[in-house]
């Protein structure tokens, strides 16, 4: 090989060797830092680019509502936070609102929000729902004992009969017990109703007991009617 | 082979080996220098931050968020959201947010003046009550004050951009590192270059090893950023809200691109060194 060609090739292979050696050195010297960066990046890097939707998600399909006595747990889709998963209504007082899983400001702007520490209908456990008294829960002003509240989910329709209403001070956690083994629907909103301006330090609670609707069971067989 | 030839050959091999080791060290020094300069020109560059806030519609987005949050505050009260008109305006948010960020970058503390917002909102609410023929009692008067305070708190909260506080803190530390690190690295590079030039009979032979190092450092500095830019891995950043994500993605993309530009500058220096080598060679022959 001619000397000039050899020198020319040197401009390729020597920098390549130096590059590889440089990377190896940096990798070995920075191994602890790379491990730390890799661990942190696992928390801030997701599998794909995130999507930001202004609209809240929905899993509720009114046309696909089933009618059964028993629903298997596997057939119930657990909604993600701020997802529209059911509908709540009370015909007598003209209450009709979408029900969201989660009671964030965003959810309460769009409808009724359910506290995620409470349970979905059919679990035999309490449900704690809230909404603004100036919007979706304004009709609660007219609610009476004996009224029927309906919650419609994809896996069935539920009915709850109002047993009690009461006014408490804000932050009174004795107003509900989410641990009890009783499917009680608890609604609450700011009180007094319709007061346009003022600090609302009271809450209006509505309690209703389940009277109808499929029970969610583990390993059960659903029987569509 | 005579003794004289053997000694000459051994010296040549020794010279080449030493030159290669020095070139390797020079590659590392150049790579670190390029990285330090890249971070200063990209990550810790004030104008890059301000420019990318503008490009990612940050100010417009926080205006929309403040408006939405203020509406959420108003919602339980039953007051029409029209009372917010002329209270939180795009101009007001833009000026306040930009001034806040610029002041924080300079290390100055900022206190938001929300007096105008509170006064305007109070005026609008009172007009609204007047139109609805509502008589405001003492409790409701207090309610109006509380409401104005809550809206102005939302406004102040949204103007705060914690990222800048961390940025300023890390930038100060980084500048201290640069002040010590860069002169040391430059000194080391100069010493190595001088040794390389003195080691060889002809200057162009020493310059050739410097050129190898510049080329290798340029390749090192370019490969990873190019891979990141092609794979768009930076778009998978899991941060929210959306306006912060948009800003971060734009900002990181620029920070990565800076290294590609520096790699390009390195290649230009390499080309310059090649020309210099050919000039030096022509002088000899």
Q: Which range best describes the helical content of chain B: under 10%, 10-25%, 25-40%, 40-55%, 55-70% or over 70%?
A: over 70%
Please give the number of β-strands of chain B. Answer: 0
CATH class descriptor of the largest domain in chain A: Mainly Beta
Shape of chain B: rod-shaped
- The CATH topology of the largest domain in chain A comes to Sortase, Chain: A
Distance between the termini of chain B: 28 Å
Shape of chain A: elongated
Given helix and strand content, the structural type of chain B is: mainly alpha
Order of helices and strands of chain A: HHEEEHEEEEEEE
Number of helices of chain A: 3
Arithmetic mean of pLDDT of chain A: 89
- Poorly predicted runs of chain A: none
Q: What is the C-alpha radius of gyration of chain A, as a whole number of Å?
A: 29 Å
Helix-strand blueprint:
The complex is a heterodimer of chains A (225) and B (285).
Chain A: H1 3-29, H2 31-44, E1 70-72, E2 83-90, E3 95-101, H3 105-110, E4 112-114, E5 127-130, E6 148-153, E7 156-169, E8 184-191, E9 202-212, E10 215-217
Parallel strand pairs in A: 1-10, 3-4, 5-8
Antiparallel strand pairs in A: 2-3, 2-6, 4-5, 6-7, 7-9, 8-9
Chain B: H1 3-41, H2 46-55, H3 58-74, H4 90-105, H5 115-131, H6 138-159, H7 162-199, H8 203-231, H9 242-284
Can you describe what's shown?
The complex is a heterodimer of chains A (225) and B (285). With 225 residues, chain A is of the alpha/beta class. In chain A, 21% of the residues lie in helices and 30% in strands. Chain A has two domains: 3-44; 62-217, Sortase (Sortase, Chain: A). Chain A contains three helices and ten strands. In chain A, the strands form two sheets. Chain A has an eight-stranded mixed barrel with strand order 2-3-4-5-8-9-7-6. Chain A has a two-stranded parallel ribbon with strand order 1-10. The mean pLDDT of chain A is 89. Chain B is mainly alpha-helical and 285 residues long. Chain B folds into two domains: 3-41 and 173-284, no CATH class; 58-160, no CATH class. Chain B is built from nine helices and no strands. Chain B has helices at residues 3-41, 46-55, 58-74, 90-105, 115-131, 138-159, 162-199, 203-231, 242-284. Classes of the chains: A alpha/beta (225), B mainly alpha (285). Chain A binds chain B through residues 10-11, 14-16, 18-19, 21-23, 25-26, 43-50, 52, 105-106, 108-109, 132-135, 190, 194-200, and chain B through 20, 23-24, 27-28, 31, 69, 71-72, 75-79, 125, 129, 132, 134, 136, 139-140, 142-144, 146-147, 208, 211-213, 215-217, 219-220, 223, 232-233, 235-242, 245, 274.
């Amino acid at each position: 090989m001619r000397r000039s060609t050899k020198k020319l090739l040197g401009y390729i292979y020597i920098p390549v060797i130096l590059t590889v050696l440089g990377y190896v050195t940096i990798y070995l010297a920075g191994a602890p830092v790379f491990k730390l960066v890799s661990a942190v990046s696992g928390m801030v890097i997701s599998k794909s680019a995130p999507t930001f939707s202004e609209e809240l998600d929905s899993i509720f399909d009114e046309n696909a509502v089933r009618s059964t006595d028993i629903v298997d747990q596997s057939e119930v889709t657990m909604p993600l936070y701020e997802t529209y998963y059911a509908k709540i209504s009370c015909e007598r007082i003209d209450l009709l609102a979408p029900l969201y899983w989660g009671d964030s400001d965003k959810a309460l702007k769009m409808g009724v929000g359910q506290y995620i520490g409470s349970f979905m209908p059919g679990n035999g456990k309490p449900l704690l729902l809230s909404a603004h008294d100036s919007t979706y829960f304004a009709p609660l002003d007219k609610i009476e004992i004996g009224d029927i509240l309906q919650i419609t989910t994809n896996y069935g329709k539920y009915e709850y009969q109002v047993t009690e209403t009461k006014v408490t001070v804000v932050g009174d956690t004795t107003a509900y017990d989410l641990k009890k083994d009783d499917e009680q629907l608890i609604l609450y909103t700011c009180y007094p109703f319709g007061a346009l301006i003022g600090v609302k330090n009271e809450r209006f609670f509505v309690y209703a007991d389940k009277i109808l609707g499929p029970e969610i069971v583990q390993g059960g067989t659903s029987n569509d009617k | 082979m005579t003794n004289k030839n053997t000694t000459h050959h051994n010296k040549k091999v020794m010279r080449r080996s030493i030159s290669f080791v020095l070139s390797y060290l020079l590659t590392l020094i150049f790579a670190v220098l390029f990285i330090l300069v890249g971070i200063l020109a990209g990550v810790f560059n004030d104008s890059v931050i301000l420019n990318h806030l503008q490009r990612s519609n940050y100010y417009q987005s926080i205006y929309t968020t403040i408006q939405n949050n203020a509406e959420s505050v108003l919602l339980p009260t039953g007051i029409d959201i029209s009372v917010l008109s002329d209270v939180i305006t795009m101009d007001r948010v833009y000026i306040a947010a930009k001034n806040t960020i610029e002041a924080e970058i300079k290390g100055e503390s900022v206190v938001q003046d929300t007096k105008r917002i509170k006064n305007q909102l109070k005026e609008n609410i009172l007009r609204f009550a007047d139109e609805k023929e509502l008589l405001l009692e003492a409790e409701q008067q207090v309610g109006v004050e509380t409401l104005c305070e809550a809206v102005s708190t939302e406004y102040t909260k949204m103007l705060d951009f914690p990222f800048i506080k961390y940025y300023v803190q890390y930038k100060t530390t980084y500048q201290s590192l640069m002040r010590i690190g860069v002169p040391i690295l430059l000194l080391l590079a100069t010493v190595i270059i001088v040794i390389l030039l003195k080691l060889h009979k002809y200057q162009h032979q020493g310059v050739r090893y410097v050129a190898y190092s510049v080329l290798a450092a340029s390749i090192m500095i370019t490969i990873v950023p190019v891979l990141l830019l092609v794979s768009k891995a930076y778009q998978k950043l899991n941060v929210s809200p959306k306006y912060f994500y948009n800003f971060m993605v734009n900002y990181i993309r620029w920070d990565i691109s800076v290294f590609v530009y520096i790699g390009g500058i390195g290649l230009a220096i390499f080309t310059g060194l090649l020309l210099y080598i050919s000039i030096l060679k022509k002088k000899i022959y």
